[in-house]
């Protein structure tokens, strides 16, 4: 039996509330720069939760020609810009760098072009169906982020989108890992994208009491694992990575950033919005990722947690980490970078995978900010309020999504 194909990361790109690229995002995380602030996208006086993680000063035509940009919803623009950064870093824009039939796109996205739906519904109500914009459907459907990236770079292999709510980006990376392992492709553009800061989404998430209402303190509102947390911060953006079969990357002299070695995926099959109270699905998911990577729990140095800052999630996730890691749970470091980035929904797993790679490269544990009054139920080392230096070879990045979705990735320092 032939050895399992190894899968490495050769490029990364992001647009998020902190910055419009990878380097500035990491710098912001190290300096404690928050991407969270008051909602400015639309008048918000009547909204109970008015704190969001908006991508600021983003003009798609700075990166994409104006004609093409007008045909894309915001989530697609974020994805295309991030993919371009990743492709450039990977060196895949050179002629003959890859076989187009062996290269694809697998993205995560939860909601699609929500702003397009809202705009065109208003058009129907106020002006009639004849006034609906011609590009409405091609802009709003969730697969268009992946489709536009494939068209831009001539990627003719697997091309699809996974929608598992807040686990979408993580599951897309896991699916890409398996597609390359199974010899369906040599190169895949993957990660997640989302643009859910719209009137309907903001009102809907607030109605189920998911969002923080600490409206007078935006910078303090996201408080993962803190006793005074009261909800997550709705964000937007994209995190895109290039996954590549190891020998393919070696042959073309690519700079290898890290290796993806494991993936676990489960469903709680319980509540539609809340995780299993015992964390059983998440425990099994993390165990699957460890088994897939062929490593022991004691080999994990850091967990980039889902850490949403909701009253329900954080103690259950803590319980799940203890269930999967046993005594080692108290020896490793855990943090939620959502405390600065906000929660990018379907893009969260993509951005957090990038942050996991950067943690390995820099040997720095990113911090959980605003952790001032620890919840007694959340008693692990969450790297409170300041990044910490330390050797990092192995990271687990986990995500949970409405519907009971659980996904976990193992990302490791690349070694020959």
TrEMBL record:
Pathway, per record: Lipid metabolism; fatty acid biosynthesis
Q: What does this protein do?
A: Involved in the type II fatty acid elongation cycle. Catalyzes the elongation of a wide range of acyl-ACP by the addition of two carbons from malonyl-ACP to an acyl acceptor. Can efficiently catalyze the conversion of palmitoleoyl-ACP (cis-hexadec-9-enoyl-ACP) to cis-vaccenoyl-ACP (cis-octadec-11-enoyl-ACP), an essential step in the thermal regulation of fatty acid composition.
Organism encoding this protein: Spirochaeta isovalerica
Q: What class of enzyme is it?
A: transferase
Q: What is this protein called?
A: 3-oxoacyl-[acyl-carrier-protein] synthase 2
For this UniProt record, the keywords arranged alphabetically read as follows: Acyltransferase, Fatty acid biosynthesis, Fatty acid metabolism, Lipid biosynthesis, Lipid metabolism, Transferase
Give me the Gene Ontology terms describing cellular component. cytosol
Q: Name one GO molecular function term.
A: 3-oxoacyl-[acyl-carrier-protein] synthase activity
Q: Which reaction does it catalyse?
A: a fatty acyl-[ACP] + malonyl-[ACP] + H(+) = a 3-oxoacyl-[ACP] + holo-[ACP] + CO2; (9Z)-hexadecenoyl-[ACP] + malonyl-[ACP] + H(+) = 3-oxo-(11Z)-octadecenoyl-[ACP] + holo-[ACP] + CO2
Question: EC number(s) per UniProt?
Answer: 2.3.1.179
């Amino acid at each position: 039996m032939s050895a399992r194909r190894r899968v490495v990361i050769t490029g990364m790109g992001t647009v998020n509330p902190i910055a419009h690229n990878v380097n500035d995002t990491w710098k912001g995380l190290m300096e404690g720069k928050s991407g969270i602030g008051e909602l400015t996208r639309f008048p918000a006086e009547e909204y109970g939760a008015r704190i969001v993680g908006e991508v600021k000063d983003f003009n798609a035509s700075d990166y994409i020609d104006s004609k093409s940009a007008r045909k894309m919803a915001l989530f697609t623009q974020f994805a295309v810009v991030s993919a371009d950064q990743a492709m450039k870093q990977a060196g895949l824009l050179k002629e003959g760098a890859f076989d187009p039939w062996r290269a694809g796109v697998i993205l995560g996205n939860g909601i699609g072009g929500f702003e397009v739906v809202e705009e065109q519904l208003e058009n129907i109500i106020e002006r009639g169906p004849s006034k609906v914009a011609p590009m409405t459907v091609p802009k709003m459907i969730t697969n268009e982020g992946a489709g536009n990236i494939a068209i831009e770079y001539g990627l003719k292999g697997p091309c699809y989108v996974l929608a598992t709510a807040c686990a979408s980006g993580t599951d897309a990376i896991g699916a890409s890992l398996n597609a390359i392992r199974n010899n369906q492709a040599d190169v895949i553009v993957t990660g997640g994208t989302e643009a859910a800061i719209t009137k309907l989404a903001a009102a809907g998430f607030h109605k189920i009491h998911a969002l923080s209402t600490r409206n007078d303190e935006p910078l303090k509102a996201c408080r993962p694992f803190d006793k005074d947390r009261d909800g997550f911060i709705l964000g937007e953006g994209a995190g895109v990575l290039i996954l590549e079969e190891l020998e393919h990357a070696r042959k073309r002299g690519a700079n290898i950033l890290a290796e993806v070695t494991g993936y676990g995926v489960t469903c709680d099959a319980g509540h539609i919005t809340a995780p299993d109270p015992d964390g059983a699905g998440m425990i099994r998911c993390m165990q699957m990722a460890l088994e897939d990577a062929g490593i022991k729990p004691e080999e994990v140095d850091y967990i980039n947690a889902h850490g949403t800052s909701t009253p329900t999630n954080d103690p259950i996730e803590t319980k799940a980490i203890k269930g999967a890691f046993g005594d080692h749970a108290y020896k490793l470091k855990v943090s939620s970078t959502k405390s600065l980035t906000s929660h990018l929904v379907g893009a969260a797993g993509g951005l957090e995978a990038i942050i996991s790679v950067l943690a390995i490269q820099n040997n720095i544990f990113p911090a959980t900010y605003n952790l001032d009054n620890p919840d007694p139920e959340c008693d692990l080392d969450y790297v409170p309020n300041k990044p910490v230096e330390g050797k990092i070879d192995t990271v687990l990045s986990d995500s949970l999504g409405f519907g009971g979705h659980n996904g976990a990735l193992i990302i490791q320092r690349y070694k020959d």
